[in-house]
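Example (one chain per record):
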Amino acid sequence: MSSDQPQNWISSVQRPSDFDVFWQSTLDQTTQIDLDVEMTYLSARSTDQVDVFDIRYTSYGGLRIAAWYCKPKGPGPFPGLIHLPGYVSEPTLPKSIASAGYAVVGVAPRGKLRSNDVFNPGYPGLLTYKINSRDSYGYLGFYMDAVRAFDMLEGFPEVDSSRLGVRGDSQGGALTLLVAALRNEKVHAAAAGAPYLCSMMDAASLTQSYPYQEINDYLRVYPEEREVVRDCLNYFDIHNFADRIRSPIVVNLGLKDDVCPPETGFALFNQIGSDEKYLYTYENCAHDAGQFVGQAKITNDFLAKHLSPEAVQ
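Predicted structure:
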């Protein structure tokens, strides 16, 4: 942690004047593409309580994206949940979440395992992939993969569209906030742990850790592009999406986090537009952000309160 009072830190992120136009155009372009969902039942991974499927769907740029889909046995209706992955970690097979009563999609956005045959900038690599252009930056399609996974889940007949949620930690926390912002009329609860991709240029100077050091590595090679990079990242910084969020949301931060600096998390939380938002901070925790000292239960209880799952027996 780089300051004694991270809650008072001020972000340098600027919101581009055409931010809303850019993202509406991107969403319009993306939603014109047929999802063309292919779902394959996996009997070896399924249990007496939970059905497991391999899913492929079409997203931004026509790329086929992979996901796991787990749901309780039976016709439903079930509350729907999107589970989004971290930067380094691979998408989890979310059977335990389905056992709690959710129809849940574990997304593998482009570059993640099972989707990396169509796009693979490597890790490290994604954060700075074509970072000098908003129209080709790696996170453009990556963001849309998360949004379209939510759209896909909403359309499943066994899913109750009045009980839709999204959750994730680190990069998954950032994507949670993104989906809650861009689908703010449809997301009914969100939980974001140690959110990444917030005040990105600031974070690169606040921490000595990767992935943010990828930005510093890039600028050491291309120092003349600093302002070009800053301008590009302003379109993708989750800080600029947060005021759109309307759903109940819980955010948790570790005050010793050297991966996603807590300063950026506080600034992000202050921007969230929801009337029902909760922040949990953990003084002695790093990037786990309290998951092992009680936050996991807080998050699960929060989602259950708003989405009303029924655990399978």
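Caption: The longest strand covers residues 159-169.
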